[in-house]
Amino acid sequence: MRKQVRRWVKECHHCQSSKIQNHSKAPLEHFSVPEKRFSHINIDIIGPLPFPSGFTYLLTIIDRNTRWPEAIPLQGITTYECVHALINGWIARFGVPGDISSNRGSQFTSSLWSEITARLGVKLHHTSAYHPQANGMIERFHRTLKTALKVRLTGPNWVEELPWVLLGLRTTSKEDLGYSSAELIYAAKHVYVRRHGTKGPLQRPYSSPYAVLTPGDKTFLIDIGGRAERISVDPFQPVILAKPPPRGRPPAKQSHPSRHPSDSSTASKHQQAMSHPAVQTSSRTGRTIRPPMRYQ
Which residues does UniProt assign to the signal peptide (predicted)? Predict the structure, then answer.
């Protein structure tokens, strides 16, 4: 009787649909990292936001290889505006990606979006419904971006502070990658600067490496003699720094110092004899061999 009552209570439809229970959770999966830069991007929309400058939304894009983030202000979130922002804000700078991952928003499932991406040769990937964790890379970027905007803002005009926030996010080192997105894109922490003016016949064309303070598309802010100088990227050459020697334990000593000096001297003589074998001075017939002076 008790088992039947327990089973009847568990099978009650109204109880199961009304009471809060622990939901089943799928195991975490590792997102595969593409081998090429800008070949696979994640895309999403943030908003609505305060609109002092007429912009109320942000089209966010992040590269899955280098984690390079981009946030493009939008006045609306129609499919046409999203396509226009994607082409002008990303494709015109970094090229056409091979894959785009997004949620099932109406902007990313419309016929116009599918037609434009199909003409560009882009393969679309949509996440499962009501599961933002499937697009977790860009969702986590949203959290960081909003926090940085809150810290940076002193007024309602977030559009003016957005470039500075993106600069900080792009130059922050990623713990799992060991580099920042800017380093992976521009591939340089230090650069050589080409010398201008009259050079001597044996003078090197580039001056010694300078630390990059802030990279950019057209100009770099570099440290020259303790002064921050903004110089065009044309006369630059990336510096390939030497890798430090691998860290490890020092080799263990194979032999211990002998208590008898004669033993150590005998061992050293034996090692010298093994490393420098005796030179033959006579042949098998008894003739004396005289090697040239350069071999003695």
Answer: none
C-alpha distance from residue 28 to each of 134, 136, 138 (Å): 10, 11, 16
Q: What's the pLDDT tens digit per position in 207-225?
A: 556 667 666 666 777 666 6
Verdict on whether the full-model pTM lies above 0.85? no
8-state DSSP, 291: -
Beta bridge partners of 236: 193
Residue type, 39: S
Delimiting residues of CATH 3.30.420.10 domain(s) in the chain? 40-170
Q: Does domain 40-170 have CATH number 2.60.120.10?
A: no
User: How far is 101 from 117, CA to CA, in rounded Å?
Assistant: 12
Q: What number does CATH give the domain 188-197+204-238?
A: 2.30.30.140
Residue 74 near residue 81 (C-beta atoms within 8 A): yes
Region(s) of the chain under CATH 2.30.30.140? 188-197+204-238
Strand intervals (E) in the chain: 40-46, 57-63, 69-74, 99-102, 123-126, 190-194, 206-214, 219-224, 227-232, 236-238
140 phi-psi bin (left φ>0, alpha ψ -120 to 50, beta other) = alpha
DSSP code, position 76: -
The DSSP code for 90 is I
Vertex 49 angle, CA 43 and 52, to 5° = 125
| pLDDT 10s digits, 252-289 | 555 555 445 455 555 555 555 455 455 556 666 667 77
**Tokens 């979130």 -> residue:** 77
